[in-house]
């Protein structure tokens, strides 16, 4: 999933998202709910997703990360360059 010449490859986006705390064994709060992250980020349906377990229901599922998270990762790379 590369959208333009200056875009990061999906593998690098996933690596940077891990650095933002969306990595296996982490706990996050997103979409108004707390989750335990079960997997590192991976490409899914044109975006990036992680496998999580809800702290409330203990049910595991795939959670699509919001575009704002992915955008923030892409912006941080541009600022560092």
Fold and architecture overview:
The chain is an alpha+beta fold and 81 residues long. The chain has a single domain (10-80), classed as SH3 type barrels. The protein is built from two helices and five strands, in the order αβββββα. The chain has helices at 10-19, 67-80; strands at residues 27-30, 33-37, 42-44, 47-54, 60-64. Strands 1, 2, 3, 4 and 5 form a five-stranded antiparallel beta sheet that branches. The longest helix has 14 residues, at 67-80. The radius of gyration is 13 Å and the shape is elongated. The two termini are 21 Å apart. Residues 1-5 have low confidence and may be disordered.
List keywords for this structure.
single chain, about 80 residues, alpha+beta, SH3 type barrels, 5-stranded antiparallel beta sheet, about 30% helix
* Count of domain modules: 1
* Approximate shape: elongated
CATH class: Mainly Beta
How many distinct helices?
Answer: 2
What is the chain-wise order of helices and strands? HEEEEEH
- How big a fraction of the residues is strand? 25-35%
What is the average per-residue confidence, as pLDDT, rounded to a whole number? 87
Radius of gyration in whole Å, from Cα? 13 Å
Structural classification: alpha+beta
Q: Main β-sheet: number of strands, strand sense, barrel status?
A: 5 strands, antiparallel
CATH architecture: Roll
Question: What is the distance, rounded to the nearest whole angstrom, between the alpha carbons of the first and last residues?
Answer: 21 Å
Percentage of residues in helical conformation: 25-40%
CATH topology: SH3 type barrels
């Amino acid at each position: 999933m590369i959208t333009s010449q200056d875009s990061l490859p999906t593998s690098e986006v996933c690596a940077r998202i891990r650095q933002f705390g969306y990595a296996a064994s982490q706990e996050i709060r997103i979409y108004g709910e707390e989750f335990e992250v079960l997997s590192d980020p991976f490409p899914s349906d044109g975006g990036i997703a992680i496998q999580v377990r809800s702290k409330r229901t203990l049910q595991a599922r795939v959670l699509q990360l919001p575009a704002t998270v992915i955008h923030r990762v892409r912006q941080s790379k541009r600022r560092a360059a």
